[in-house]
């Protein structure tokens, strides 16, 4: 049995544990501490107890982890019926993990009943050994209840060792529901995934404590191990030559049904997401003022013309908070993760959350007045100087 326990012989009823607890998880009755339902076993009262009367006991036995095999990637399909790019990115990363572990990589795909084989072929070309597919109109819409029931039933039957999800709005809703049903762990918004080959432990690294440090999390006692990853964190793999995709069709239980009927869909915003931009100019507070954005936009326009692609504008969180740009432009762990071919960073210091969001960029050009700015650690080309002076010079050169 896990949780907070009280040694009645040692407890003196001083009440320091009550004053320390932030969750109304303990009380003192007749000079003895008593654990309440609000206790979350955080252990703060244990540290505060002057007589050592409190302890947190944890059940480390967990479930039987033997017999679990394979790495699964939940392959979400968009409203257009095409598998999302983040699914292909995760298949590429899953291929590396599966090779390291010496197991198979399985893409799990739910589609409407009249779907063709295009998505299965794309997943196979990205590296999946098998595509586990269900074609059913109940999966035509992103109904979390239907998808959770479907995925949990498959996992209970086939016992995957790892399941990876894209951290889309739907993925963030689906993954916790599956984790609770399967009684396993889940790490959100991972930026690094590595495999311990000997023990089969997925090492899941993500920013913690407001991005001030990187925490590596493992789930040693429960299966499947599960993690969500933001779009753009890992590069999409180059498609490989495959013949017929290895597709296994499975049925959705007849008892599963959705309680939500989708009547229509409307787009929230217009235009392409910065996550899809092949080139990006990202600005921080170092550009000086909102007025400088006009010159930055001109630079992005000229770069796009020169590169033959769309060049979008991104920004850091302080720029959004200042009202210079809206949230859809925010790049970083609390915004959008990007992976452009070219990223030009202007006046960005490089907080760890921001660096996590640009880790997928192929080439980074950074301009900052501070020679010790953390952004330079992620840059391929570094310019120490006033960023707007550099912008004006770049515009002048490109206009020639």
TrEMBL record:
Family annotation (Pfam families): ETF (PF01012), ETF_alpha (PF00766), Fer4_10 (PF13237)
Keywords: Iron, Iron-sulfur, Metal-binding
Domain 4Fe-4S ferredoxin-type: 2-31, 32-59
InterPro entries: 4Fe4S_Fe-S-bd, 4Fe4S_Fe_S_CS, DHS-like_NAD/FAD-binding_dom, ETF_a/b_N, ETF_a/FixB, ETF_alpha_N, ETF_asu_C, Rossmann-like_a/b/a_fold
Record CDD domains: ETF_alpha
GO BP terms in the entry: fatty acid beta-oxidation using acyl-CoA dehydrogenase
Highest taxon in the source lineage: Bacteria
GO molecular function, one term: electron transfer activity
Role of this protein: The electron transfer flavoprotein serves as a specific electron acceptor for other dehydrogenases. It transfers the electrons to the main respiratory chain via ETF-ubiquinone oxidoreductase (ETF dehydrogenase).
Similarity annotation: Belongs to the ETF alpha-subunit/FixB family.
Subunit structure of this chain's protein: Heterodimer of an alpha and a beta subunit.
PANTHER family: ELECTRON TRANSFER FLAVOPROTEIN ALPHA (PTHR43153), ELECTRON TRANSFER FLAVOPROTEIN SUBUNIT ALPHA, MITOCHONDRIAL (PTHR43153:SF1)
Protein name per Swiss-Prot or TrEMBL: Electron transfer flavoprotein subunit alpha
Species in which this protein is naturally found: Parolsenella catena
Higher taxonomy: Bacteria, Bacillati, Actinomycetota, Coriobacteriia, Coriobacteriales
Gene that encodes it: etfA2
């Amino acid at each position: 049995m896990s949780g907070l326990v009280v040694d009645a012989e040692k407890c003196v009823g001083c009440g320091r544990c009550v004053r320390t607890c932030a969750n109304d998880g303990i009380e003192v009755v007749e000079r003895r501490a008593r654990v309440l339902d609000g206790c979350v076993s955080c252990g703060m009262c244990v540290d505060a107890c002057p007589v050592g009367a409190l302890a947190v006991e944890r059940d480390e036995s967990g479930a039987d982890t033997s017999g679990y095999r394979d790495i699964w990637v939940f392959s979400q399909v968009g409203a257009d019926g095409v598998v999302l790019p983040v699914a292909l990115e995760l298949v590429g990363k899953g291929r590396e993990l599966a090779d390291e572990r010496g197991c198979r990589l399985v893409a799990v795909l739910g589609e409407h009943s009249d779907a063709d084989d295009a998505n299965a072929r794309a997943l196979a070309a990205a590296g999946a050994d098998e595509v586990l597919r269900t074609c059913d109109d109940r999966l035509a819409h992103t109904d979390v209840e239907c998808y959770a029931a479907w995925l949990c039933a498959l996992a209970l039957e086939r016992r995957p060792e790892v399941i990876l999800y894209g951290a889309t709005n739907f993925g963030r809703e689906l993954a916790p529901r599956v984790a609770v049903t399967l009684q396993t762990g889940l790490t959100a918004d991972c930026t690094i995934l590595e495999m311990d080959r000997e023990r089969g432990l997925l090492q899941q690294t993500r920013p913690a404590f407001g991005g001030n440090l990187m925490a590596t999390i493992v789930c040693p006692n429960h299966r499947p191990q599960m993690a969500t990853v933001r779009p753009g964190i890992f590069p999409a793999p180059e498609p490989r030559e495959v013949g017929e995709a290895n597709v296994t069709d499975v049925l959705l239980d007849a008892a599963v049904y959705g309680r939500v009927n989708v009547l229509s869909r409307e787009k929230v915003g217009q235009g392409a997401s910065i996550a899809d931009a092949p080139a990006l100019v990202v600005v921080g507070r170092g550009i000086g003022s909102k007025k400088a954005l006009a010159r930055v936009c001109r630079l992005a326009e000229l770069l796009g013309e020169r590169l033959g692609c769309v060049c979008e504008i991104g920004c850091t969180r302080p720029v959004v908070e200042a009202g210079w740009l809206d949230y859809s432009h925010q790049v970083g762990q609390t915004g959008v993760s990007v992976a452009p071919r070219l990223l030009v960073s202007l006046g960005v210091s490089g907080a760890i959350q921001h660096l996590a969001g640009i880790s997928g960029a192929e080439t980074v050009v950074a301009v900052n007045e501070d020679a010790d700015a953390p952004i330079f650690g992620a840059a391929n080309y570094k310019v120490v100087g006033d960023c707007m002076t550099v912008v004006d010079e770049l515009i002048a050169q490109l206009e020639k």
